[in-house]
Amino acid sequence: MTFITQRNNLLGILFVVTAVVAAAGCAPAADSPEAAPTSPPVVSASAVAPSAAASPVVADDGCPPDVNLMYEWLKDTPAIFNEIDKSVTGIGEPKCAEGWSTAMTVVKNADPLVVLFKYEPNTGRWIPVGLGSDGVCDGAVKVPEAVQAKLHPGC
Questions:
Q1: What are phi and psi of 34, to 5 degrees?
Q2: Which of 49, 56, 94, 106 has the maximal Cβ count within 10 Å?
Q3: Are 115 and 143 in contact (CB under 8 A)?
Q4: Residue-level pLDDT at 57
Q5: Which DSSP helix (H) or strand (E) runs through 130?
């Protein structure tokens, strides 16, 4: 064998031996307490810093509401949604207080209407319960007067 071949073989052996020794030195002995399996660490919610992009904190009364979800739930309620002009593209300007919310329909071919929602804390959903341009909170569903003052005119 040439000198270069012998040198390459020796370097290869040294590399393998170094890797084995390094791996053995990093692993705890089988009878040490460090070798015992451990459960993953428990991290409490308070230990995790909230990110800047986190959703807004929702209170027990559901405020502030997510208008995109509210619109989806409105579309899932045909008894109310079918009363809105077909040019509707969404809802906006939500106002919220004590488990009640109103939002304005976004329509192209008609005047906007007030949609009344009631928060369901067991499911976290806003349930559409009324629709109209005036007196929405005094119809079949009665909203307390103190709350009405915090919602849209037309409530």
A1: -70, -20
A2: 94
A3: no
A4: 55
A5: strand 125-132
